[in-house]
Design brief:
Elements: H1 6-17, E1 33-37, E2 42-46, E3 50-56, E4 61-71, E5 74-77, E6 82-87, E7 93-98, E8 105-110, H2 125-139, H3 143-146, H4 150-157, H5 167-178, E9 187-190, E10 193-196, H6 207-220, E11 226-231, E12 236-241, E13 245-250, H7 263-277, H8 280-285, E14 288-292, E15 295-296, H9 301-308, E16 316-323, E17 337-341, E18 353-357, E19 360-361, H10 364-371, E20 379-383, E21 393-397, E22 403-407, E23 409-412, E24 428-429, H11 435-439, H12 444-454
Parallel strand pairs: 13-14, 14-18, 15-19, 18-20, 20-24
Antiparallel strand pairs: 1-2, 1-8, 2-3, 3-4, 4-5, 5-6, 6-7, 7-8, 9-10, 9-22, 11-12, 12-13, 16-17, 16-23, 21-22
């Protein structure tokens, strides 16, 4: 039996007499849709709940990583990296930022995913070879600098790949064809097998090298130091040296809060370390600071900038960053984006700095070194040239599960110079962790830094050039 109250009946009659306004469904956020990146060979599909990447070349489109939506225009990846997308000058242009990196990626809206992105990717080894070769062809900036004829590489190795080529065989072919690039940011991983390059005459940073050099430094260089303390799971060491000098060793710019910690936790831990080290009394007292990066395997450029912010009272530009942006022309790039260093709102040290570098100074260790080029105040580099790899890495996965990485960016100095391949040279050259140095219990670079900071006006410390400010000799 249906019971209708008078009030409900009245509303029903009223509804019959008056047209009902149509309630439109909520509009999707302005950033939802398909976007193409300038450079980076990627398409992004942004939806209400997820961000999905598609890695594209002229011969392939493979599903990449994804992130879940965690706020307006914000997406979080599986490792805790926060991606932020904001529309730019109109609804068809946007900018993407990652809190683990510096700079932005420009996005342009496109109507839809290409048809090739919606079909299963072929798993034929020849299709995998073509996808890897074409990814380098369209994105790698340094073939001419490395004197590598990439088309000749294809002509040599493509005939070695057949429909029945095994995974280990294909991994071996990739390793051989990529080795002449001598680029530590070029890598291939297939299960337990992995390959990466290294500049000839240098040693890649490793846990073993880090432990050996750290023990050596503590026994020799820091034997009379005070207030020595390890931070960030041993990745950072600080000690006070005689003569009001400080020593800061940084062996990575990542994992400060643990291997699985998100970038936000690494930032918080680094801030805690720097607050502990750069106290008001110490920043007033120090006459010089040694920053030891001789074994540094890189990580987040943003963490390096965070350290630089504690070393200046004046804003300046660390470097400008650009990416290759034409599949057919390696000389064309995205618009260079300046990366600023803004003084931190905490105690800062602005006195003389000696930066120790070597061939095992890699990636973010190098971009941090470059970020000090125009630092106001006296800064000198001592040791050996860095490894010569600066770019963020593009990570690509083939249909068979094999993964590879490559760089596609350049970091430019104020004068437009880059140091990819050669590394950043020191002002003062000294041997770095050679077997002879170990055998004779010598650390020439450290000793030179101490001497320089105690008497930088001594003619024996001259770099051979007249430099002002941050020794702007580049």
């Amino acid at each position: 039996m249906r019971i209708v109250t008078a009030a409900v009946a009245a509303l029903t009659l009223a509804a019959l007499a008056v047209p009902v306004a149509t309630v439109a469904p909520p509009r999707p956020p302005a950033i939802d849709g398909v976007w193409r990146t300038d450079g980076y060979g990627a398409l992004l599909v942004l939806g209400r709940e997820t961000l999905r990447e598609y890695q594209t070349t002229s011969v392939s489109c493979l599903a990449g990583g994804s992130a879940r939506r965690t706020g307006p225009g914000a997406y979080t990846t599986h490792d805790g990296t926060v991606l932020t997308v904001r529309t730019d000058r109109d609804q068809d242009h946007a900018r993407l930022a990652a809190d683990s990196s510096v700079g932005h990626r420009q996005l342009t809206r496109v109507p839809a995913l290409p048809a090739g992105c919606t079909r299963p990717a072929p798993k034929d080894p020849r299709a995998g070879f073509d996808a890897l070769w074409q990814t380098f062809e369209e994105n790698y900036p340094f073939f001419a600098r490395k004197d590598v004829d990439w088309h000749a590489v294809r002509d040599r190795y493509r005939p070695q790949v057949h429909h029945d080529t095994t995974g280990p065989e294909l991994f071996g072919i990739f390793s051989r064809m990529l080795r002449p690039l001598y680029d530590i940011h070029v890598a291939v991983e297939d299960g337990d097998r992995d390959f990466s390059g290294v500049r000839p005459g240098t040693e890649a940073p490793s846990d073993e090298l880090d432990a050996r050099t750290k023990d050596f430094i503590e026994a020799r260089d820091l034997r009379d130091a005070t207030h020595r303390q390890d931070f960030a799971a041993g990745l950072i060491t600080y000690a006070d040296l005689r003569g009001d000098l400080g020593y800061l060793r940084i062996s990575a710019f990542e994992h400060f809060a643990g291997d699985d910690a998100p970038p936000s936790a690494d930032r918080a831990e680094l801030d805690r370390v720097l607050d502990t080290v750069l106290t008001p009394s110490r920043t007033r007292r120090l006459k010089g600071l040694i920053i030891d990066l001789r074994v540094n395997d890189g990580g987040s450029d943003a963490l390096g900038i965070r350290v630089a912010q504690r070393l200046t009272d004046t804003p300046y530009t660390a470097y400008t960053k650009r990416a290759r942006n034409d599949p057919a022309d390696p000389t064309r790039h995205t618009r260079p984006e300046p990366v600023p260093v803004v003084p931190a709102d905490t105690p800062r040290y602005t006195g003389p700095v000696a930066v120790l570098t070597g061939g095992s100074t890699v990636s973010a260790g190098e971009t941090f070194t470059q970020a000090l080029f125009d630092r106001p105040g006296r800064t000198v580099r001592i040791g050996q040239p860095t490894q010569g790899v600066f770019s963020d890495t593009m990570t690509r996965r083939l249909p068979d599960g094999m993964r590879f990485t490559l760089p596609n960016e350049e970091y430019l100095t104020r004068t437009g110079r880059t140091f990819d391949g050669t590394g950043i040279p020191p002002h003062l050259t000294e041997p770095v962790f050679t077997e002879e140095e170990f055998a004779k219990n010598r650390d020439s670079a450290f000793d030179r830094a101490v001497t320089f900071l105690r008497d930088p006006a001594d003619p024996r410390q001259s770099t051979g050039q007249v430099c002002t400010g941050a020794l702007r000799c580049m």
